[in-house]
Design a protein that fits this description.
The protein is an alpha+beta fold and 379 residues long. It is built from nine helices and 16 strands.
Amino acid sequence: MTDTFPYLSMFIATPEQERLYSRGAAEQWGVPNGLTVDEFVAADEVRSQAAHANNGKSLSWVLAPRDDPTTLDFRCACSTYRRTALIKRPNDAEPQEVHSYIIVGVLTPPQNRGKGYASLMMRLVHDLVGANVLPEGLSRPTDFHPAQFSILYSGVGPKFYATSRPYSQGFSKDLDYGVGWIPRDSTSSVYIIPEGVHVEKDLPDGWRWLQHDEMAALWENEKQFIAEGMQNTSQSSQVLFSVLPSGGVEEFQRAWAHYLYDKLDPPMNIAGAVRNDARAVVSWALNGEKEPRGLILTRLRADSEQDGEDVLRAAIALTAQHGLREVEMWNMPLHLRGAAAKLGFAQKERVDILPSFKWYGPERPEDVVWMNNERYCWM
């Protein structure tokens, strides 16, 4: 196959295109989760004004003919969200703050599927978000900041996005699984609560519960702990990067599933827990993607196994109190896996929602470490 679509390019979606894109996304992802199309579209509009997306951080794009960029028969669409991140190279005195992007909502209308449009779009997306000089026919807003890296979560297995070569690098018939978004760490630690079990909800001394409206301030202070973790890592010969949970990024995990919270009895007003000295923290959200319903931990930072065990017990108890069945954590920190196993957490490798990254720097992907590859990064 060669590039057979020289008449197509990427454009920022018009309001009419965006509405059509949102309705298509509702059919794809909202209806299977119990929402009507109108409910999903309304929620999408609210989410677009939230902290993780406002002030130009989010853009919707369509693949469309160059001579008819506003057509409602666009070939496919996706969205980009700008995220603040930290990177640390071996010779850096301290981590540096950079821009990154997450690519979400890759959608091809049914009549356009199977024609190679999505493959072309994703190749162009690389250049849109990561290139300093754009290929001919491609443009972006003047205040758009090229990224050090981009991430996405693959729902179509590990290969499709991994072979997505940047458009500016030309086309190759050879499948190279290192040129696109490379899957990295998709381990889940899962605890299933036995039916009929009652667990007391309690926190040890020195901890307190966190309400939903406390989370934004909490994450503004998290940068110092993430930077500290990068400074102290033993992988000093590699490049480290981490997305930050601030700016509404972690809070999106609860905002997108707000309709599930309305169905809980009793209501769940607790979004996490923090040690009084802030040296350990845990946050969670309702997992709306599967049965059995449960909590998914969005962030877990704890220096000691005891702290990890304490907050995992608290999460289990809160889950049981609300009649939910499962607690899940993505990429449990290695030093806490023993404590989790003692409580009954089992590890498994996910086959979908695969965290994947594309590095736009000069380093090889195998020399790059994604730190804090936790649920809070997901969209």
